[in-house]
Here is the input.
Amino acid sequence: MKPTIIFLHGGPGFQDYLKPFFEELKDDFECIFYDQVRGPEIRIENMLSQLDEIVCSISGKIILLGHSWGAVLATEYAGRNQSKLSGLVLMSTGLSHKHWKDEYHKEVEDLGLTDAGPEQIFLTPEEMEQGSSFLDNSWLTFSEETFISINKSYLEKYDVTPLITLLKIPVLNIYGEKDVRFPARVAKTFNLFKSDMIDFQISNVGHFPFLQNSGRSQIFKILKEIFL
Here is the structure.
């Protein structure tokens, strides 16, 4: 039986954008992509409940792979339901709001990007051509009411570092060397909270390390090495 990877997209408030990039893994993994629940009164518990329904419907090894906000959601779930999982993959994320926010503003200032547009924050110059259309298409699905609800009730104060320290399952930490949104220098500190965390930096990519073939092939390789 193939292991299952459940992919959790970023946001909160977007629909899934990971399937076109990761469905190639279906030869080695069962891959589940879904749109996180959205609405004006959505709370973290609603999203965890939706995820738990999916997890409980699967037999065999289950790995959660979250990107950006999705990795925060995945960590929150793993901390509460570790026995149901075989692994956790964090991609381009933070572990606490304060640490991430302070370092993000410092990074933006250091790089002279205070007045920059989203493309310059999320993408490297090499990713612009492909990435700009990706961002535009993703924003078409955005639910502002979902973001506002989760931001006020959870994101403004989240801290999943205590949960990370308790995890016994393998945790893979993937990040782009040139990520500004969740600065790489933040991701490099995650193994302070879990010493056996597998750290995997991808050179010359930003917040979406899977956009280009070179980054995506590296991610595929490390996923297979660790979870097959």
